[in-house]
């Protein structure tokens, strides 16, 4: 029986199973907040480049989700939407972290409460999609200066 399962797991997987996620979380917000940020690390375990092109969020959570980067311009931090998405090279990874790339939730319905979670749908350029469960957490304090900046 064990051998049978090993055989099944070694079959080729379709593209939407080749992206793995770690360190996924959303920063908790105050109840009336209108925007929120989601962080995760994506790893492409396939031989092909894959691009995360868009993200959708349940209507009960927020109006929309955008892929953002943060750049420094004349000493100011500027957020901008990555309209071409985030490309993952074969066996490459992308880290979405405080102070850098992130998924921005726009038009939050009732803020993000610590201890709750929600599910995002990530869409890739090969037409595949993958669900991502996102736990809401308070700033742990060890994230970086960016998190503390808001207090
Ligand atoms: Cu943003």
Automatic annotation (TrEMBL):
<dbReference type="InterPro" id="IPR007410">
    <property type="entry name" value="LpqE-like"/>
</dbReference>
<protein>
    <recommendedName>
        <fullName>Copper chaperone PCu(A)C</fullName>
    </recommendedName>
</protein>
<dbReference type="Pfam" id="PF04314">
    <property type="entry name" value="PCuAC"/>
</dbReference>
<dbReference type="InterPro" id="IPR036182">
    <property type="entry name" value="PCuAC_sf"/>
</dbReference>
<dbReference type="InterPro" id="IPR058248">
    <property type="entry name" value="Lxx211020-like"/>
</dbReference>
<keyword id="KW-0732">Signal</keyword>
<feature type="signal peptide">
    <location>
        <begin position="1"/>
        <end position="15"/>
    </location>
</feature>
């Amino acid at each position: 029986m064990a051998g049978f399962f090993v055989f099944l797991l070694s079959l080729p997987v379709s593209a939407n199973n080749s992206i793995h996620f770690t360190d996924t979380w959303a920063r908790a917000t105050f109840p009336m907040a209108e925007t929120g940020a989601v962080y995760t690390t994506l790893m492409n375990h396939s031989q092909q480049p894959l691009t995360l092109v868009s993200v959708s969020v349940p209507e009960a959570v927020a109006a929309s989700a955008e892929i953002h980067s943060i750049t420094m311009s004349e000493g100011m931090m500027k957020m901008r939407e990555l309209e071409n998405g985030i490309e993952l090279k074969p066996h490459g990874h992308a880290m979405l972290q405080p102070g850098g790339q992130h998924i921005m939730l726009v038009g939050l319905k009732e803020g993000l409460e610590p201890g709750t979670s929600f599910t995002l749908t990530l869409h890739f350029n090969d037409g595949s999609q993958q669900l991502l469960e996102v736990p809401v957490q308070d700033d742990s304090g060890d994230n970086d200066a960016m998190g503390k900046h808001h207090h």
